[in-house]
């Protein structure tokens, strides 16, 4: 990530350059990309013209047939047969049955299976990363990096499988042991978003598996081919180890499947990644049945650069966090607060860096900025720019839709708005960066915290006291609080998630594994007496 950010800043091109896709004969324009020789590599992932969108040990799909499109040119890639409600019901039953076997396997043995999943993913890392680039739209190095995240969390989970457990606590009663026992929940539902179609599933799946759970996954409909390809890799590992495929089930589908998962009492934990608006609906449905939910929702993230900031760190950090994945990360920076003493220089240099970004087909190795994911995202970008101007903002760079096949918009820089302007407090999932000027530390810390979301935040400073104030109780209220690095690019070893309208969930590392288990406090009397706690006598 860091090398990529520096490349973005240091490239010597004079203006935004657009790399057009190679021309194809008109006769091919209406056909699926999977039939074109340039995309024959899709078959290496087991994909075909029409793909079964349900896996529960068997491949099936009796629901609606949808088509997946490439955001770089809006051409169809392949078709998917989604899950019907009958498919969903059958898959839930198969998964619950598979859990009976999986839960009996010792945790280190489960960890070894997860390790093998990581090895299988590593073998397909380049071709799977290429599919992420083709179907989601992020540049190739980011697509490969996302698969690497799944590989890394498999390695992490394999080690964790030998360490999970609770303490033995001192009992106040003689002849008694007080222990904390952790057990799996059962079935974990995982609903993931389009922007990270591999990694977020990996965070949940690897930890859920080693803690003794089975999974049912519903990926985003617009990245269904990635969902199917990843599931095929996992299914092969399970099959080779004589394990039920339903341990890692999959149901491609829309809101009907997601709603069923949220309302289903058989789904013991539902992990949902998506917008705050939809996440709120999911949370209410799960809470209505007193279920558990793990929410990873929106972010309205800020970078703050003080007068003593190292600008050689600030510029590439702000650039990558703002335009990486075309601004479609939940950790993308939306707000950049600059101390008054460095404001003009940073804005000038950032505009220069933006002009050097090479835009084009995301699977081209020389490209650093790809399209938005859908046509709807482009429309949202256009509406946001119009609203920015209505509220008094000035677009100092970008702000336009590019005249090019696909969903390309110019990376955009905005100045002149108040820190609390209504449009600033909305999360626009696009490469729009709002820049503000500040003078006082206490003011800018408050501005960082005034938005509804609380995912990621970062300051750039050399002041040690300020750093500890920033990470302390009166500093950032986010779940990710960084110093001298961007808001995006989290490592798998730490718990990932945010506060407030971001949902409060934690995935990946640290003690996030506890969200996938239930805790029992166990008191064991190994004596022949029956003393009561607190010295109570009942005679």
The low-confidence runs, each spanning 5 or more residues with pLDDT under 50, are 1-29
Instruction: Describe the strand arrangement of the main beta sheet, using strand numbers.
Output: 4-3-11-10-9-12-13
Mean pLDDT: 94
Give the termini separation. 69 Å
The tally of beta strands, per DSSP, is 26
- Structural class based on helices, strands and sheet pairing: alpha/beta
Shape: globular
Taking all Cα atoms into account, the compactness measure Rg is 25 Å
Describe this structure in words.
It is found in: Cytoplasm, Cytosol; Mitochondrion; Nucleus. This is Alpha-aminoadipic semialdehyde dehydrogenase. Pathway: Amine and polyamine biosynthesis; betaine biosynthesis via choline pathway; betaine from betaine aldehyde: step 1/1. It comes from Phodopus roborovskii. With 539 residues, the protein is of the alpha/beta class. It contains 15 helices and 26 strands. The strands form seven sheets. The chain has a seven-stranded mixed beta sheet, sandwiched between helices. Strands 17-18-19-15-14-21-22 form a seven-stranded mixed beta sheet, sandwiched between helices. Strands 2-6-5 form a three-stranded mixed beta sheet, covered by helices on one side. It starts with a helix and ends in a 14-residue tail after the last strand.
């Amino acid at each position: 990530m860091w090398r990529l950010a520096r490349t973005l800043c240091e490239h010597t091109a004079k203006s935004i350059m657009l790399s057009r896709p190679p021309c194809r004969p008109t006769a091919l324009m209406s056909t699926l990309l999977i039939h074109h020789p340039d995309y024959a590599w899709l078959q290496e992932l087991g994909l075909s013209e029409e793909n079964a969108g349900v896996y529960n040990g068997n491949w099936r799909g009796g629901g609606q047939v949808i088509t997946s499109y490439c955001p770089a040119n809006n051409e169809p890639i392949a078709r998917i047969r989604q899950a019907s409600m009958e498919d969903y019901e059958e898959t839930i039953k198969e998964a619950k049955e598979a859990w009976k076997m999986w839960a009996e396997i010792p945790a280190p043995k489960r960890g070894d299976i997860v390790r093998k999943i990581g090895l299988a993913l590593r073998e397909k890392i380049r071709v799977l990363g290429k599919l992420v680039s083709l179907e989601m739209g992020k540049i190739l190095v980011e697509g490969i990096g996302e698969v690497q995240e799944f590989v890394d969390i498999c390695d992490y989970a394999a080690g964790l499988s030998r360490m999970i457990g609770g303490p033995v606590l001192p009992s106040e009663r003689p002849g008694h042991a007080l222990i904390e026992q952790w057990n799996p929940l059962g079935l974990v539902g995982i609903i993931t978003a389009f922007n990270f179609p591999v990694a977020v599933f990996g965070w949940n799946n690897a930890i859920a598996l080693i803690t003794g759970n089975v999974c049912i996954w519903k990926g985003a409909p617009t990245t269904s081919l990635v969902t199917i390809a990843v599931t095929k890799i996992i299914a092969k590992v399970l099959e080779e180890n004589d394990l039920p495929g339903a341990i890692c089930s999959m149901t491609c589908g829309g809101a009907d499947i997601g709603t069923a998962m949220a309302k289903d009492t058989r789904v013991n934990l539902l992990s949902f990644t998506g917008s705050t608006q939809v996440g709120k609906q999911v949370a209410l449905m799960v809470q209505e049945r007193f279920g558990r939910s793990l929410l990873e929702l929106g972010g309205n993230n800020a970078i703050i650069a003080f007068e003593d900031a190292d600008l050689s760190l600030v510029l590439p950090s702000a650039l990558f966090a703002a335009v990486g994945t075309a601004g479609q990360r939940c950790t993308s920076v939306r707000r950049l607060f600059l101390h008054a003493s460095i404001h003009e220089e940073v804005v000038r240099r950032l505009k220069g860096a933006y002009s050097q970004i090479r835009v084009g087909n995301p699977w081209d190795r020389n490209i650093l900025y790809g399209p938005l994911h859908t046509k709807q995202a482009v429309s949202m970008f256009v509406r946001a720019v119009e609203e920015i101007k209505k509220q008094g903002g000035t677009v100092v760079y970008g702000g336009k839709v590019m005249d090019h096949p696909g969903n390309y918009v110019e990376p955009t820089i905005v100045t002149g708005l108040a820190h609390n302007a209504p449009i600033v407090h909305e999360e626009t999932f696009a490469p729009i960066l709002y820049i503000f000027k500040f003078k006082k530390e206490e003011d800018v810390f408050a501005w960082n915290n005034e938005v509804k979301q609380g995912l990621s935040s970062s300051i750039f400073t050399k002041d040690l006291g300020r750093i500890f104030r920033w990470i302390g109780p009166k500093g950032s209220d986010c779940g990710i609080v960084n110093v001298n690095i961007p808001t995006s690019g989290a490592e798998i070893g730490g718990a990932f998630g945010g506060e407030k309208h971001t949902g409060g969930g934690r995935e990946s590392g640290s003690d996030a594994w506890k969200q996938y288990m239930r805790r029992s406090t166990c008191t064991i009397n190994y004596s022949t007496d029956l003393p009561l706690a607190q010295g109570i006598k009942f005679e």
